[in-house]
């Protein structure tokens, strides 16, 4: 194989790190959504995390999901309307685990690659973590507008890899 053929087959950095985030997500035992996150400084991988129950606690596959329902008011066609959100409160999100298991000094100016757009809580935590960029693949429409505004206010680059194809070994059908 010549050098030009090798370079053509070589993945770009975004694809490379997002592939890793998806492979990390395969460790999740959440029945609703497998999420993986990786912390990158320059081209160096500094940490990985996935969503799941706290260590030593039964997870959702063993004990079932702990679903909490929240109602949020959203402006639709100039009118406030209630909007229901359901979330599992047994699970620590991948972004939260990433922040728990990495050092602040490593996060300064770094990039987080995450399989799914962060929810509002994770976005707040990431906004305060020292990172400079969030790259995600699957959107999370329930919090999209708020999260995008927050990232803009904080000056954090926030971008979706909508052209990305996850590795076949990491494919999962996502439920809401």
UniProtKB/TrEMBL annotation:
Gene Ontology MF, one: zinc ion binding
UniProt-annotated catalytic positions: 95 (proton donor)
Name listed for the protein in its UniProt record: dCMP deaminase
A Pfam family reported for this protein in Swiss-Prot or TrEMBL: dCMP_cyt_deam_1
Similarity comment text for this entry: Belongs to the cytidine and deoxycytidylate deaminase family.
InterPro entries membership: APOBEC/CMP_deaminase_Zn-bd, CMP_dCMP_dom, Cytidine_deaminase-like, dCMP_deaminase, dCMP_deaminase-rel, Deoxycytidylate_deaminase_dom
Cofactor: Zn(2+)
GO biological process, one term: pyrimidine nucleotide metabolic process
Naturally occurring in which organism (per UniProt): Paenibacillus prosopidis
Residue ranges occupied by any CMP/dCMP-type deaminase domain in the UniProt entry: 12-150
One GO cellular component, as annotated: cytoplasm
UniProt key word Zinc: yes
Record has Zinc as a keyword: yes
Binding annotation for Zn(2+): 93, 119, 122
Keywords of this entry: Hydrolase, Metal-binding, Zinc
């Amino acid at each position: 194989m010549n050098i030009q053929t090798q370079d053509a087959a070589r993945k770009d950095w975004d694809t490379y790190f997002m592939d890793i985030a998806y492979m990390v997500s395969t460790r999740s035992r959440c029945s609703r959504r497998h999420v993986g996150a990786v912390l990158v400084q320059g081209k160096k991988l500094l940490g990985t995390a996935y969503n799941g129950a706290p260590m030593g606690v039964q997870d959702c596959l063993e004990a079932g999901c702990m679903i909490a329902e929240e109602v949020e008011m959203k402006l639709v066609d100039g009118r406030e309307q209630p909007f229901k959100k359901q979330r599992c409160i047994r699970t620590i999100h991948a972004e939260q685990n990433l922040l728990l298991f990495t050092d602040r000094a490593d996060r300064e100016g770094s990039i987080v690659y995450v399989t799914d757009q962060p929810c509002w809580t994770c976005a707040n935590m990431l906004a305060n973590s020292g990172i400079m960029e969030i790259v995600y693949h699957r959107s999370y429409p329930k919090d999209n507008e708020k999260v995008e505004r927050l990232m803009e206010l904080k000056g954090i680059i926030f971008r979706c890899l909508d052209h990305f194809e996850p590795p076949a070994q990491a494919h999962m059908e996502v439920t809401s």
